[in-house]
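Forwarding these from the shared drive since the link keeps breaking.
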Amino acid sequence: MQRLVFSSKSERTVMLANPTQLTLDLGLQDAEAPQAQIQEITYQRRKQSTMPGHARQPLPESLPRQEIVIEPEDLPEGAVKVNEKITEKLCYKPGRLFVLKIVRPYYLIPSLQGATEGQQGGNASETSTSKSFLIATGPYDPFPKFNAHVSLLAYIFVSKFVDHLPFYRLANILKREGCAIAESTINDWFAAICRKLEPLYAELKAQILLQTYLQADESPMPVTDKDKPGSTHLGYM
């Protein structure tokens, strides 16, 4: 009986009243039910347009603006400007490559060195003159052997780990921008950045292991191992 009453039932199940079961009669069958009050409510609403909507959201004020002023042709002399019509369009300029040319001039600084020596037969003196060069110290470069700026290396890392772009796609993107970079070169840059970030990784790992409760993403993924070429093992994020 409990399964019949409380368990899940399909729409075909019909609960039939048992004629032998007693019913609780409180004498309310003959009482007059209160008449429901009917209230008429009217309202107005705007009719939905059948045309496709053109509700444009305002463009963020934080975005930089590049203003173009288009003056009418053959503007007569003495015309007075009374108003202007402004149209804003959201534009996009693809990331562009450029070369940062750092010039550090060499300066020749003459300096006097040596001592004055007295000579027999007179008071003549002899002074030896040497020359030295002065050049400004260049900006800090964590990868002096690379011809890639840190801005490009940061872009590669973001594309790899945030946008999930493999290196061959990234090489194609850079090629469309006018600079063909071999995929092996991007791999070398990537490995050098990883080695440079090892102290930060070690500190981050130490801070994480100090916590009392950790969660991990156990999404499986195949991992290649250089010690076992041609095979993969099951790894986790």
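-- next protein --
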Amino acid sequence: MKKLILRIAIALVVLVIAAVVVMALSLNWVVRKGVQTVGGNVTKVDVKLQSVNLSLLSGAGEFKGLIVGNPPGFGTPWAINVGTLALAVEPRSLLSDKVVVRTVHVEAPEITFETDLRGNNLSKILSNMGGGGQPEPAKPAQPAAAGSSRKFELDDLLIKDAKLHVTVSALGGKTATVSLPEIHLQDLGKGPEGITAGELTRRILEAIEANAAQAAASSVGDIGNQAKNMARDMLQGGTNSLQNVTHGLGGFFKK
């Protein structure tokens, strides 16, 4: 009898270990699939994530190759391109109704601010989500996706050394690159209720769009001055002056 009990105990331990291993191996796939699916659903643009490496035991993780696409009608290939994103999650929360993310640190992402001087790609994405502009007309309700009721808390988000590519479609889609000030957000979804993945995404994009619009303003202003000078010199100097101004404008966009 004692041997039978011992064998049963060993079998249970093996099953538990096997379950933990299977869960750990499938966790990265589940997170990657969730980011792409939920991100695409809430932003109405393509969201791609190359890989996820998240430890079930420590909660430390890394995302690689996160790309947020642009809405239809914009010529640039993507709105946000993140090479590497480091995060730390409360491990116990991964199996609960509220996932607690302690930190998210993003270094040197690339962000595109494409504008026709009336609107921009980032505000359009926010509009798709019901923020940063007029939301799209309501669509018939769809069945809730599995896991869509899960809430989130993000204690600390830091985005630093970001590069902002400012593109003015009215001037042929030329691009000027400027540095984006550091973005630091804290206590998103703090409290017992937390916030949805969509609300968390919207708040982060709002901060990015606001900072990008402010950083792009000076570039767009300079571009506008260049355009005014171009028009003036075209009238005053003919073809040679037009060539000189065009050359100067090209030099500006190479900065």
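The chain has a mean pLDDT of 79. The first strand starts at residue 47 and ends at 54.

- D.
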